[in-house]
Amino acid sequence: MGIEVAQGFGRRLKRMVAGMAAAALVLGSPWLGAIAADEADARRVAVGIKLFPAVLAADQDIGDKLPSDGVLKLLLVHRDEAALAERLAAMLNDRGRIRDMPIAVEILTVGELASYPGAQAAGVFVVQRLGDDLVSIRAFSQRHRRLSFSPFEGDVERGITAGMVVSDRVLPYLNIDAVEATGLRIKPFFLKIAERYETH
Known about the structure:
alpha/beta, Rossmann fold, three-stranded mixed beta sheet, 9 helices, 8 strands, about 45% helix
C-alpha cells in the first residue's frame, strides 16, 4: 500500500509540474502583474502558489503539524503587499485540502512572524522579495522546524527551504542544508525529482 500511495503521489506531482508552464501564462495575468513588482515576479508568484501545497505534501511529518482544531495553517508573509497576499490566500483557500487535511491561510507581515506561535503553522510562503528580511523567515523555519517556500530566484540559495527552478519546465528546488537544519523529512520520490542546492 505504501508503494501505491507513493506512486499515486508521484503521478499527481508529475501532472502538476507538467502544467506549471501553462499555469504561468494564465496566472501571470493583469490582476497579478499590476500588484507584483514586475511581470517576471508575477509569473513566479503565480506558479509558486500552485506548487507550494505539493511541496508541503512532500513533508512526511506534515500530519504532526496539524493543530488541535484539525486545520493546517499556511502562512503568507509579506512586508507591504497586503493586496497581493489576499489574492494569493484566496487561491490557496480554493484548493481546500492538503493530503486530505483541511487548510486555512493566515496573512502576516514579516515583522509579525517572529511572535507567531510556530506550532500553529504547517509552512510559510514568501509573497514578495524580502531582501535582508529573509533572515526572519529562515530563523522561524529553523526554530519551529517548518518548511519555508519562496518563488523568487536566489532565495533558496539564501537559506529558504524550498522554491522552484524555471527553464523549459518548472521543478521544485530544495536547499538541502536548510532541509537538514529544520529536521524536515521529505518524501524520497520528491527528493528524486527536485533540483537541489547544497553547500557540502
